[in-house]
Write a structure and sequence with these properties.
Blueprint: E1 3-9, H1 13-23, E2 28-32, H2 39-51, E3 64-69, E4 72-78, H3 85-90, H4 93-97, E5 102-106, E6 118-128, E7 131-140
Parallel strand pairs: 2-5, 2-6, 4-5
Antiparallel strand pairs: 1-7, 3-4, 6-7
Helix pairs in contact: 1-2
Length: 144
Amino acid sequence: MLNKELTYHLNEIDSVAQQIVQNLESKVVVFKGQMGTGKTTLIKAIVKTLTTNELVNSPTFSVVNEYQFINDSIYHIDLYRVEKLEDALNFGIEDYIYSEQWCFIEWPEIIETILPERYNEISIDTIDTNTRSLKLTIRTQILT
């Protein structure tokens, strides 16, 4: 399991996104952190790094937003309002996760049992109004 930790100011978010993209080992990336830590802001910066200028919005109400670039797609999934695994399965979460496309998932706790064998986890903590602490971990799990 690879761990990379860094502390950054919000005005450095674009360079942080570039560092993250360079260290990802899977196209499935889950984002953990309290409300307001900047998960969506970081995802916006990562999408910008991958696509150059795609307009990114939070999928809190739509659950999934899709962005296109070159021959790839990015699925930005926000599970905050999804209450149980069955609900996620009903809207096809597995189709997104196993699509071999980029998949950025906020609030992933309810789907952890169906995540792929290898995926990236980004945990974000607030240090102060303009400073965040980030930990990138490559997770591996045994699938049964």
